[in-house]
Amino acid sequence: MRAFSRLTPLVAVLVAGLALAACNKKTASEGDEMSMGDANAKVTMVEYASASCPHCARFNNNVFPDFKKKYVDTGQVRYVFREFLTPPYPLAAAGFLTARCAGKDKYFTVLDAVYRAQEQMFESGDFRGPLLKIAQSAGLSEQQFNACIQDEKALKALSDRVERFAKEDKIEGTPTFIINGKPLPPSTHETTLADLDAAIAAAKAGK
Fold first, then answer.
1. Which of 4, 24, 83, 181 could, after both became Cys, cross-link 90 (CB 3.0–4.6 A)?
2. Does residue 159 lie within any of the structural domains?
3. Residue 199 contacts by C-beta under 8 Å, 6 or more apart in sequence?
4. How many domains does the chain have?
5. Range of the domain at 191
6. Is residue 76 part of a domain?
7. Structure confidence by residue, pLDDT tens digits, 84-128
């Protein structure tokens, strides 16, 4: 797989940032989280996912649309997305940075596009080309995209968020789902809507 040359310098920054975050008392604000749905919903589902995680992409493409329609759009569940970083790290970091540069109102649209282009990027080895097209479709110019993915301050903020929340919830892999504070039990299969149905029903019942 070809390296994403424009992101190569960010890998070192990312590693350093994660190491520094462990001893940095300043933590990310919960206001940095991306969410959708009724803030007063009885059930909150938190998903930890990486923009470079194939399992996360399959959940996004095959399960999330029905989950959103059934629970988020009807006000039953508040959905919170928390970023995590998995190999290849340049793609994960660039995907999240691009989504944030597009703005909160376009964050999930951009992330969805990244997930749907993920397989193509892995097959071709070209990360930058598809990400640039996604950025441009969200209203960013090539110059803005380049500045976005090379923004060391934004990357440090990303690494702080990952470090903080991953430690708090003991996240070891993606995707991980936490419903009303309870992690979805490990399964031998990828998470389905039926799995979420059961967990959400239990949360509503106070179990």
1. 4
2. yes
3. 177, 179, 182, 184
4. 1
5. 5-16+30-94+152-204
6. yes
7. 999 998 899 999 999 999 999 999 999 999 999 999 999 999 999
